[in-house]
Amino acid sequence: MSTLENTESRRFNSDEIYVNVYKRVYPSSAPNQTENQKLSDLRSSTSQPMEVKLKVFLNMGEEHIEHLKLIWSTDDKKRRSFLKREYLSAGSISGTFYTRDKNVPLKEKLKHYNGIIALDFDDVQDVEACKQKIAQLPYVYYVGLSASKRGFYAIIPLDNADYTKHFLYFVALRKEMEKLGFTVDKACSDVTRLRFVSYDPAPYYNENCELYSLPEDFDFESVRTEHDEHTESLENPRLLRVKAYATEWEKKKIALDDYDDWRTIAMSLSNLGEAGYEILDKVSQFSKNYDEADNRKKFDEFLKSTRSIGLGSFFFKCQEYGVIPANVPHYEMIPFPVEVFPETVRKIIRETNKCLNFSVDHIASSLLFTASVAVGNSVIVEIKNEWVDKAILYIAIVGKPGTNKSAPLRYALRPLVDRDKKEMDKYERLKAKYDEEMRAPAKDRKKVLVEPEYVQIVLSDFTTEVLVRQHKINPRSLAVYVDELIGFIKCFNKYRSGNDEQIWTQLYNGGAVIVNRVSSQPLNIEDTCIGVIGTIQPNLLFEFAKGKTESGFVDRWLFAYPDDTEYPKLNHEQLPKEITKSWSEVIEKIFKLPHEPDGKHFRLTRDAMAVYSQWFNALADQKNSSSSAFAEMATKMERYCIRFAIVLEALKYGCSDKPLKSISVSSVKGGIDLCYYFMACAMKARKKFNSNPLDDLNERQRKIYNELPITFSTAEGLEIAMEYNIPERTFKDWLKSNFFKHISHGQYEKRYK
After folding, report:
1. What confidence tens digit (pLDDT) does each residue in 656-681 have?
2. What is the rounded distance in angstroms from the CA atom of residue 743 to the CA atom of residue 749?
3. Contact 99, 49 (CB under 8 A)
4. How far apart are CA 359 and CA 350, in angstroms?
5. pTM greater than the 0.85 cutoff
6. What would the pLDDT profile of 27-47 be if each residue is shown by its tens digit?
7. Which CATH class is domain 346-690?
8. Could you tell me the residue ranges of all domains in the chain?
9. CA–CA separation, 444 vs 317, rounded Å?
10. At 642, which helix (H) or strand (E)?
């Protein structure tokens, strides 16, 4: 008997099992629709995926045989993946669905759960022998080749009709397969997982197979946490967070009497579709102006609106009204507040996200950085006497390998790179003329010649001396762009003895920097404005922060760290040329802001100063009642708020004909929104700072890692792996991960000692 009670008695009959078949593996709903709109459209659509019997799908490979042959003949894995997406149909083995959109809760998009699971066995050595081994199991209904013929898959019916327990059964099956020496693809735990059609001339069927039950000795407690987290993730995580805040609002019975605040919240909640109205009604009911019918009418209008106000605005208003649930992190992971930008910039974000698969967080942060470099020393804000600040940003773009995190950065920086190219052409012309004139005798020269200098903005590979010297040539600003930030950090003090970390801490403040060298004259610059941006993988944040938290160096960094960065899919959307052109025009306009040697000081308007002061003091109260780690991180946000406000004001100037005379209320409020976003990301990054990456290894991996010498050959590693029954292919794939460094042919080094 199973350790879990089943919701109903089941008997497997393959003729009663239906699956969805998708001709192309692309998102099945429009990205800008609300969840309610998506579901409504899909349920009434005539272009929904086909529903066919399971056995029909399993035999569809013959219809794709020519494309399958092409895939079989392709050795390149990425190419095979592209061909499968481009040409092969795919089926949902575990159920049928209204939509595959990941932002719609599973219970809403699931039409019917089949109570079956498909297990993938990839890159096995002897496919046919392994097929036979798996086919001997009494609970296996089908075994067949994968689309690439380099692996196979098995279909197993479960004695379970509850989709929320799908993950538990997967864990149990995965453990059983491991005992047999097989590694199962973890993605098979996903109820919505699709598999491509394939062809097997000799598949295995067992129409009389048993239903798989959880074994008597199944250790439910050992996977309880993992199961609970998985089950919770079946719901839209954003909706769960919003509900927590709404419940807190109800407890405090706060009156939402200000119409502008109500409107902001209503528009923000419309991102959740119909589910958003229930939340809105909860937070509206205590207002003296509460009118359920009017609320309903206006909310329906917001559902149809294309105005870009994200969920971040709801969380921000909750913060303003003191609504912070005790059972959730102090700062929630909120979406990037795109609404703080002018419409021109918001459009660039929307279009690059749609056409180029850029993460909103990554492209928005990259645009923000580029604009900050264009502003540079041309706008210095005086908060009060002796307290000034400028738009210096240190940004880390965080994302998994292969998630397109570098491309948004290169796109955003293009106007600066184009400027550098023009300056290089100018420098080369002048230098050639200078060299020609210098070849003439001094007595024949009509004037004193001054050697031309290359006025550069973007630097990637440099010494500290070169950096300071270049800044003296270009006092407006410099941008340091490093594709891999971990390399930037590891190069500290590489070319000299000293403390590069201290220098970069000084540069963050925008003050004077002096570089002394025995071999050369001292270099100094009074008014620095150097921003830094680069990419980093989440599992390398531990190395990034190692030994640098006490000095405050890490607290100066902004982390663009979205909840999840997906591997991009190929689409056929073309980015309109005017989008890229408009971004170049915005940056060129900002560069027209005059840079005065002594710096022109701007001030916040009176109302903007009032908003900033109120937020500053509220943040101080929060720091006083929070941990020292939070206080240290939040302290830097006091300065970043002003820096963000400068950039936002400059972007308004770049997108309009209005002069830049002061920092407005809206820019300060936008700066506060950005502070909440980056504080949330910082809290997420800190979890990586304080956790050893080795903690992510399972018990068997940890034992192998500990036994491996610091440096080892592939053969030495394989010998140890074999002792723990790890297949050769699995171990070699592991060597490609960030736990190891490839130092030469066949030689590796452990990253973590």
Report:
1. 988 899 999 999 989 988 998 898 88
2. 7
3. no
4. 10
5. no
6. 333 334 444 444 444 443 334
7. alpha beta
8. 14-233, 236-328, 346-690, 693-750
9. 73
10. helix 628-654
